[in-house]
Amino acid sequence: MRPRNPAGRLPEPPSPIADDGDESHFCRTCAFAGACLAVGYGKPELSALHCLVEHVGPYRAGEHIFRTGDPFRAIFAVRAGTVKTCLVDKDGREQVLGFYLPGEVIGLNAIYPDHFPCDAVALETAYFCRFSFPAMSALAARMPAVQQHLFRLLSKELGAASLLAGDHSADERMAAFLVDLGERYASRGFSGTQFQLSMSRGDIANYLRLAAETVSRVLGRFRAQGLIEIEGRALTLRDAAGLRRIGQSLLPE
Amino acid sequence: MNHAIAVPEFDPELIARYDTAGPRYTSYPTAPQFRADFGEAQLREAIRASNEEPIPRPLSLYVHVPFCLSPCFYCGCNRVITRDMGKADRYLERLYREIELLAPLFDRDRPVRQLHFGGGTPNFLDIARMGELMESLARHFSFGRRGEREFGIEIDPRFADGDYVRGLGALGFDRVSVGIQDFDPAVQAAVNRIQGVAETRAVIEGARAAGFASVSVDLIYGLPRQTLAGFERTLEEVLALAPDRVAVYGYAHLPQLFKAQRQIEAGELPDPATRLALFGRALEKLCGAGYVYVGMDHFARADDELARAQRAGTLQRNFQGYSTHGDCDIVGLGVSAIGRIGDSYSQNARDLAGYYAALDAGRLPVARGLLLDEDDLIRRALIGELMCHGELDTTEFGARHRLVFAEYFAAELARLRPLADDGLVALDGAAIRVTPRGRLLLRSIAMCFDAYLGDGSAPARYSRTI
After folding, report:
1. Which of A59, B175, B332, B404 could be joined to B337 by an S-S link, Cβ 3.0–4.6 Å?
2. pLDDT computed for residue B458 by the predictor
3. Which of the four pLDDT bands, split at 50, 70 and 90, describes residue A29?
4. Domains of chain A
5. With 70 as the cut, is the pLDDT of residue B461 above it?
6. What's residue B3's pLDDT?
7. B398 lies in which domain range?
8. CB contact under 8 A, B56 and A215
9. Is residue A51 predicted with pLDDT exceeding 80?
């Protein structure tokens, strides 16, 4: 065996892993940290209320977190990794509904039908906090701040879907997609200008309703225009303002 | 980058001292590290992942033609000596099958920017067969547009003429690499390769007439019966042919590994001092004639794109030596061919029987390979940088690969220390610079960073550094 030499490795950089929580503290980036702490509850208090926050994972790339039709018991906050949600029709054709980054929550769209209306698949090794939903609803009933937070998450989810509505050019869609990703990373305290595009180009194409070749062509054009730098999956937004101008009709003010 | 283009300093005493067996680092990790647990499933997965990058890399195809009409005794390549064209047809049948299996795994929007035919002797195939093979490749892969691609082939001029080369030009080839080794008749007799200057010139002139963009020739020093005076005449004849690139390889006498070499009388090999002087003479002559020493075995005209890529900092290492297309995924086709896709290397079965058996069973003929881990990728980048540009900014490199250079490579820097004391490299804490004295000993410098050396698995399989 050759010698291993881990000495001298720097820690993972401003890398998107929301994993600074423990048994009694929320991760800084957790969707629920703000809401719960604002009303004086930490994790110990929540578990006393039987609102168990359970760490689950790792899920490897390609593994399902839940499948369409599974009974709805819990929502999941992403601690590390990236997740896509998608629908698969009876011919096996997939439609990508969205991507979820560390600190974001999946499963909210299952609240009404009481079963999951889509699949959730890890795009790279992923870890989650699992929140039992019955316990969480009980908590929301007693704590308006938690309820408000749930509503906020739900409306965000609805807003995200409209990113793709309407008749827009490939450049507009791609620019809006990149700006949106950057802003979501930034809002969780990660770098909003340098991140990994962990979704495959097929998934990006599917999500943006473009051909895979178009995804690469548009990214290549953005690179030639100095808007982005891209090496493998490592993306740098060189000119976020320029991208925002291109994608503005799809982006909130 | 000026360091890299400086004329190297030729110090026979120093070179003799560092003259040990070492890899050429056309890949890192080197081929002896490839493992049998990398097979078809792993290759398919590597290709799938490579298609899913946001901007998938363009492709570079390598096609191996293993046949030769006559055995050159110095040869260490994977080849089969025959005059039977039926053998070529049976091989082509399998090669087509491999193309049909492999090509559809790559997304169609990945253009072929580079194609290289190596051997063996690629011109074992006549123009009709070459045409059919090119047609199959064009049908199953997406060839880049003319002007955005380079198609090269290795030619043995003893079995080709101007017409043949013009035929290749019509098929889209625009680079040729011509084997010469040495024009000295005594040497040619000793290595069983009798080749005249005139037939060599016919091929080169045919290529120029057909509009080929680049002509490269190969020489070998260290062959039996080679003398300084004879090699000097060869060099003059080569300069008169005015190739764009010249490769000057050192002969590695490893008769226990390569059967053909057992025909060579060890007593006729030049002694180490002569061997060095032969290379020294080539260096002096070529640099004197305006060629730039690119590194390792390679020289190029100052206006050749290899030399230009080196000045621009975009040169990369590949299996043919140096390349301006390092950004491509390499697809290896044919027996023993090596591919480099994403973070993987893979090699096809090295014997015809194994290659045929896999394809006859409908399987990809990959026999071994390697999935590079993060440490491999870091070292590959580092060794490539030193071999191509002779200079490494350790701070910038550390930032790019997320490491504290002096800590991560503490043991390697200690190994490099005596080389620095000998003036091969300059270490100033912020950079590693290969000096003009070190330019001829790039392998010895790179070996300091090879994590696989010293585990007892390799040295005997490598040729000497010079």
Report:
1. B332
2. 43
3. low
4. 33-163 (2.60.120.10), 167-250 (1.10.10.10)
5. no
6. 43
7. 1-29+372-456
8. no
9. no
Residue range B33-84, pLDDT digits in tens:
999 999 999 999 999 999 999 999 999 999 999 999 999 999 988 789 999 9
CATH code at position B107:
3.80.30.20
Does the beta carbon of A216 lie under 8 angstroms from any beta carbon of chain B? Answer: yes
Residue B109 contacts A where some CB pair is shorter than 8 Å: yes
- Our measurement of the distance from residue B215's CA atom to the centroid of its chain's CA atoms, rounded to an integer in Å, reads 15
Is the CB of residue A2 less than 8 Å away from at least one CB of chain B?
yes
Same domain, B156 and B169: yes
Rounded to the nearest angstrom, the minimum Cα separation between A230 and chain B is: 8
Which residue of B lies nearest to A13 if distances are taken between CA atoms? B402
Mean pLDDT of B426-449: 92
| Chain A residues within 8 A of B55 when measuring between CB atoms | 201, 216, 219-220, 223, 230
Strand-strand pairing, B67-68 and B80-81:
parallel
Question: B54 and A216: CB-CB below 8 Å?
Answer: yes
pLDDT at A40: 61
What pLDDT, on the 0 to 100 scale, is given for residue A60? 92
Output b/e per residue, B146-169; b: 16+ Cβ within 10 A.
Answer: eeebbbbbbbbbbbbebebbbbbb
> Under a CB-based contact definition with an 8 Å cutoff, are residues A244 and A200 in contact?
no
Partners of A197 on chain B (C-beta within 8 Å) are 54
Banded model confidence at residue B408, pLDDT cuts 50, 70, 90:
very high
In this structure, what CATH number is given to the domain that contains residue B428? 1.10.10.920
**Sign of the four-CA dihedral A66, A72, A74, A78:** positive
Does the pLDDT of residue A216 top 80, yes or no? yes
Helix pair A201-208, A212-224: axis angle to 10 deg: 100
Hey, are the CB atoms on B54 and A204 less than 8 Å from each other? yes
CB A124 within 8 A of CB A77: no
Out of B54, B403, B455, the one facing A10 most closely (by C-beta) is B403
Q: Provide the pLDDT for residue B414.
A: 93
Same domain, B416 and B302: no
Judged by CB atoms closer than 8 Å, whether chains meet at A5 and B107 is answered as no
Are B167 and B282 members of one domain? yes
How close does chain B come to A70, measured CA to CA in Å? 29
Residue in chain B nearest A219 by alpha carbon: B55
Predicted confidence at residue B184, as pLDDT, reads 97
Total number of domains in chain B: 2
Domain boundary among B333, B360, B387: B333
Contact status of A152 with chain B (Cβ, < 8 Å): no
Judge whether A207 and A164 are in contact, CB under 8 Å.
yes
Distance, in Å, from the CA atom of B25 to the CA atom of A27, rounded to the nearest integer, reads: 45
In chain A, residues with a C-beta closer than 8 Å to the C-beta of B406 are: 8
Q: Report yes or no: A194 at the B interface, CB cutoff 8 Å.
A: no
Rounded to a whole number of angstroms, the distance between the first and last alpha carbons of chain A is 56
User: What's the rounded mean pLDDT across residues A196-212?
Assistant: 93
Task: Report whether pLDDT(A161) > 70.
Answer: no
Q: What backbone phi and psi angles, to 5 degrees, belong to B457?
A: -90, -10
Same domain? B147 vs B234: yes
DSSP string covering B57-80: PPEEEEEEE-EESS--TT--S--E
Give B295 or B461, the one with higher predicted confidence.
B295
Please answer yes or no on whether B56 and A216 come within 8 Å at the CB atom. Answer: yes
